[in-house]
Amino acid sequence: xxxxxxxxxxxxxxxxxAAVIIAAVLVILRPKAERRVVEDKGRLVEVFAARxxxxxxxxxxxxxxKPREELLLVAEVxxxxxxxxxxxxxxxxxxxxTRLIQIxxxxxxxxxxxxxxxxxxxxxxxxRLEQExxxxxxxxxxxKSDVSLAKADYFRLKKxxxxxxxxxxxxxxxxxxxxxxxxxxxxxxxxxxxxxPQKEQLxxxxxxxxxxxxxxxxxxxxxxxxxxxxxxxxxxxxEVGQHVTIGQSLGRIYSAGELEIEARIxxxxxxxxxxxxxxxxxxxxxxIFENQGARIIWNGYVTRVKAQMDDKTRxxxxxxxxxPTSNSGENRSALRLRPGMFVTARIKGKExxxxxxxxxxxxxxxxxxxxxxxxxxxxxxxxxxxAFKDSVIVSQGLxxxxxxxxxxxxxxxxxxxxxxxxxxx
Length: 425
Hints:
six-stranded antiparallel β-barrel, four-stranded antiparallel sheet, 3 helices, 23 strands
């Protein structure tokens, strides 16, 4: 037993000694490490060339589409609705001249006939009076002749009485006849004089009858509601059989022509409005509607600026007119511009020359931009003219073609080494 244990111990010792010898040999024969200095090649960055260009400022605003010309249909006469046109339903298109609504016309037709009869009666009275005047004038002529004869006879007898040829009673009788003929003439002339006011009264009655006749015709015309233009029905508020009164709303339609949008421009964007906005020139604008990924654009233009700012939002309301048939984009035929749509208006403002449009992320706090000069980073301060969505417009601080770093960097110092990997922006 002692001999076996001794043999195992010797074998373990031999293995350990062999391992030590091999390790020592490896240490002695290992190559010596060379001492190297780490070379700083700089950070790897991507750049793009900044290009100066003429940039048109776009002013973005929002608004709701409204009809430029909207008409509220109102009953001008009372009565029962007896008919409506089949196209007079909400959402339908109606053409100019379409008889949209018919109010029972029978009462107004009878009134027209009655007023026409009154005119004829007044004209008949005038004819009767004119004939009476002619008769009076003829009787006056006869009366004047009678007066002349009576007068001549009276003066003849008066000469005879001076010569005592006739009796005084004969002269008195002749004088009475003369005075009676004068009285009859005076009465006829007075009667003729009275025909003047009578004629004026009858003329006034005839004119009034004509006015009432035209009024009755107008009421008859008003019993029909006709579409004054091509347009779309916004609302219908009556049905056949319903009785309406004067002033009652019957519906609403709007013209199929241009629509308009009241967009509000923030104070900070006032300076980008063209100077000719208050003149006759049209300022172009794109009207954009987006719905479930579909983007539709209509052509519009700014027509006027409202006289007063909104004192609550401190914005300036401008009116944009848009042609609803000028749309483009997806689903062009499936969707038309309608009142009530909330849209985005992109107004084409002033043009700035020789400006740089940079991605917003390359402009760091303090309006600084990292550029590359040779193989060194150079920090430049720029003048930001405008920040708009994902872009920044720089007016000064860069030169055309200068290399701008677009790789996000932190803890940078002016003059640090960089390595350029140029790619298109």
